[in-house]
Amino acid sequence: MSTDQVIGRIHSLESLGTVDGPGIRFVVFMQGCVLRCQFCHNPDTWDTTKGMEYSPEALMQEIIKYKSYMQFSGGGVTFTGGEPLLQAEFILKVAKLCKQQGISVAIDTSGFVWNPIVKEVLEYTDIVLLDIKNYDPVVYKTVTGVSLSPTLEFLGYLKEKKINTWIRYVLVPGLTDNLESVKLLSKHLSECPNVSKIEILGFHKMGEYKWKELGLEYQLYQTKEPSEELLQNAKDIFEESGIPVSMNR
To answer: What are phi and psi of 181, to 5 degrees?
Structure first.
């Protein structure tokens, strides 16, 4: 299939996002994901057969409406999900259109999907928001259902190509709060000069109702949001990397 013919499946659009990269963002939530994260707040994005169908040109017509907001604030477009790189052909086409308009492109990804088209997408990407769910391979598999190694290989490629990267880490009490593993991740990141920011995202309950509506088994009903002390402990550890760290509850 050529990129001229590709159609994207999109879960939803957010026109004035402020938490998915720098500045004001037009956020595209792509449909489909191969991970099954226990704390996912968008399980309704998992199914690859659902979502609204868009051509690259039709999506670009929506994006361009907000170009002035993006340029004024230093923002751009963020592709997230789900796992956006499952639809790398579609994103490549839209990213090229964005570049023609001088619009910055960000990809929020788990780093699990890896193929030649993804490599080409990264050539048109200004910033990658890389979600690393845990640094312990056993915990990572428990949390996501997949292996950690593709994500670390993805991170290595971003380092090699010097692509600006923000790391996102969701802190879940009793699940991803293994601070020794956080220390090892912090050390690993300290050796990645392309990583310009680490975001600690506190676990929240806002997507809990979706699991029930979808008839999915949710294992974290009894899990509480992280305490300020736990968040600060993680922040202190990540700051040892020498990389700026932010917290978002």
So the answer is: -70, -35
